[in-house]
Amino acid sequence: MELEELRKLATSSPSKIVLFVMDGLGGLPIETGGLTELESARTPNLDALAAKSICGLHEPVGPGITPGSGPGHLSLFGYDPLKFEFGRGVLEALGVDFELKGTDVAARGNFATESGGLITDRRAGRISSEESAKICHLLQKNVRLPGVELFVIPVKEHRFALVFRGEGLSDKLTETDPEKEGRPAPKVLPLEPAAQGSADLANSFIDQAQKLLANRSNANMVLLRGFAKYPNIPTLPQLYGLRAAAIASYPMYRGLGKLVGMDALRTGETLKDELATLAENYDKFDYFYVHFKRTDSAGEDGDYDRKVRAIEEVDREIPELLRLEPDVIVVTGDHSTPSVLRGHSWHPVPVMLYSKYCRPDAVAEFSERGCAGGALGRFKATELMPLALANALKLSKFGA
User: Fold this and answer.
1) Both 195 and 238 in a single domain?
2) Residue 1: its pLDDT value, please?
């Protein structure tokens, strides 16, 4: 159902919804016929919750399509990512509370390592946030672009946000991240003739940054992706009257929440911190998005065992979530990040939805194989939001 039609059905109720997102949750076995990371993990609490829930597998975008984190999350919030497209730069800037103007162009930056013209580490060994901030300060102080105000903003670890401010800027630009090590970083190219000047500015920034960082053995290159202007998108409060909150330690995901009208709550670095923030603010909101990053980071690093441990960390904290007694609990991921692939993949994502109004199925294990047999089947991720709203009694009847 389209957003405007859902908006007409939205109604208020005191029910609480918690969407818990284990980033990059879905996985693959290391060997054919083996177990995925989720299947290997010891998850008694998640399994017990699954036994009381309705389960399935969701497609973030569509069969065979590998989603980025932005489209994956938008789907979970109920937005069709094929209709609401935007670059990741906006999310990075919003996530660190940078106030974007309508004419600004933002990009997400990675500090990377280059040798002999090839990218040898796209994340520069995940340098510390403190070191990254120093490099950002160096670039902010020394890079000069004619006619443009420049902002180089530290985000977290190897990531930074880059914002160009000026007149006549375009975000119709290609990215420079080669996506895999052992390749050169391409130049920024315009996607339309009017974007040539903006492409020249981006390439000038990269060239100047590379010269300033040339004496470093690590983090001596910058990669840019997700060029974007602030999009026009209806928010969750506008659509459903929700008082919504985002709880995420990683800035980009705070930005995602803010983009769709959530209050981005300040929290600590650990899952315990995030759940404490949830408890402290439980009476103030009726929809909570809680984000856990380490499952995805381990998958991207190709570390199967670390991803298993991250999933087990979540399982240990599930009782803290249950103590709050949310009316609706959705546990899932925004996409799959199998450690064997060291990146996002097209595989559907396990999901369970709990409420006292759901019809529990026969699934007794929260896993890819378990959820494949769930009553929800394999479905579009955009359908999760109306299901959560219905189970929270926040949608009225359609038609007479």
Assistant:
1) no
2) 78
